[in-house]
Amino acid sequence: MSPAHSRSIPKTGGRVLVVEDSADLRFLYRLILEKSGYDLVGEADSGAAALERASALDPDIIVLDLLLPDVHGFELVRRLRALLPDVTIVLCSGAGRDVAKEAVEVGADSWLDKAQSYDLVPVLDQLLAGRRG
Amino acid sequence: MVMIDEHGLIELVNRQTERMFGYDRSELVGSRVEMLVPHRYRAEHRHHRDAFFTAPLARPMGTGLDLYGLRNDGTEFPVEICLSPVDSGGRITVGASIRDVTTRKRTEEMFRGLLESAPDAMVIIDASGCIELVNHQTEALFGYDRAELVGQPVEILVPHRFRKRHMQERGEYSGEPRLRPMGSGLDLYGLRKDGTEFPAEISLSPLETGERTTVTATIREVTERKQAETMFRAMVECAPDAMVIADADGRIQLVNAQTERLFGYDRAELVGRPVEILVPQRCRASHAQERSRYITHPRSRPMGAGHDLYGVRKDGTEFPVEISLSPLERADGVVVVSAAIRDATERRQTERARVVALQREREVNARLRELDRLRDDFLSTVSHELRTPLAAIKGFAEILRTDLAGDPETQREYELAERITRASTRLDQLMGDLLDFIHLERGQLTVHLGPHSVAELVATAVRGAAGIVEAHQVNVEIGEDLFVMADPAALCRALAKLLSNAAKFAAAGSVITVSAVSEATTIAISVADQGPGIAPDDQQKIFERFYRAGPDNRHPGTGIGLAIVKELTEAQGGSIDVRSTDGAGSTFTIHLPRTDVGPCHE
User: Fold this and answer.
1) What pTM was estimated for this model as a whole?
2) CB-CB: which of A31, A65, A97 is closest to B399?
3) What pLDDT is stored for residue A132 in this prediction?
């Protein structure tokens, strides 16, 4: 087992809230983040839950699914942005590249192709490096 | 008054004679009368005198002759002489009354001069209809010498078929002569000596001289005008539109057959009537107003100049019309208005139909756009929904693969995890192709250009091809920091496709090299493989949609991968080319605008 998989990594990357209605993907994110420098502090399976969790947990990062059962991701980005102006939002979508631009326009910081979910950690690293830089 | 004896000697003169000839009575009495006659006529005069005394009868002298007197001072003057024999006891003397006609002669000459200088042919006829006098224009117009005409009945100048009527009318006219001006609505013709006819306008004016009444006819040839008029009428008749010509007061002067047909009137029913007869009752008042406004500022107005106009037929039915107006100034300065009228029923119906069709088309288009949007939404949703479980499959397989790597005991499980990863990546790419293709088809491929680090984009692209290129050795050779103007998502996708394309054709274990070099204004990013290469014939076609190189279906694919790469590249303002040697690998190179400014982070 490589050191990257060790649970002893200090969780300094940031506190992450995952908003995803697919339990499988929530589980995937959990596995991925477990082995990373990011701390998964909460999960939500709907827009309403996301707003409640976000205001309760005040996360650094929100990983957000575009299509949720109760609210469209763009709308949720707007509301979350209003709630937490400084939070880093990554919008995940399987709808193709064209969503990327709109995602950024409505206030997301980055966009992740769903098929590349496994690459969440490098995307977060790059994004935060950029923010810090 | 001069009295002479049979020898021609003057016996007696009166005071007027002394004054007229400038002699004293004593100088005249006893002298021969020839002293009062110009020398050139004297011999002849003596001869005439002798003849007169043989058969002395009172008569006016020199009917039809020009007589002259000779004054004492040698000057001549025209005279009229009347002779009357006086029998005084068997001895015959003759009384000659002499009148100086200088003034009358001068007047006569002026009259003739006037006659000759008139622009028209002039014929003077006497009460019996015989020609007394003609001018030069008459000779020229009819082709006769004046000697051939004088004394002839005026009917010599009238075509045979009109002669009888002409004689009758002449009789009636001489009974009640009056001035009749030119062109009083009659169709008159003249007959030339050579038998040809010509249309003429004739004005008549009675002339009373003493007890005699003559008639002066002024004759003008109007062939040209008649021809012009005939042509004009023919032109009006053959016009495709109904033509109505009205005078300044709006009275119809001329209509053509189309007008009769369109409005259902005979032309006789229209000529002389106000044009408003052709306008629906409700519009008549305003039409008359408009008409008087138009006549003060007449200008050409083309068809259908934004007016909703209607005509009314004799049977009272209305129909839409298009009207073009144009003022015509006649030679006499009077302005008439010519209106061309076209039945616009069909055109307005067509227009209405077109508006309806257009509206329907708009609705259909809107519906199609709505359907398009629904399909877009559906595809996005389906794509998203499909990719969610796919992402889970791929992600878990990756985790397994990572966890199992390097442990010989779980080698088999590792390989299975790797196969799951590869298959899911492949599936994901196919879905990406499908989405891209739909966007390309609709021209909805949009890019958002910005400066980006080539190294970062290449790294992302290589990561995107994970699982696909695992069996190959991927070398990235990017020396310095290079920046391109690109859409990161589009470029990564293009590069990932080139990578998976290379992996598909080149043998496992071979090297795939991704390199970037700076060119003059561009950055060239190349993906080179060690595969079989591409035949020269195929090299241009591989970028076409659905084109698949090679003779068989050994390599599965949709045939749109490279077409998408090309379009993604071109959408960013770049270009793509391929260099390949059969059997020695292929190199695909994307050229994109270079920038020296790095990406800016917040």
Assistant:
1) 0.44
2) A31
3) 56
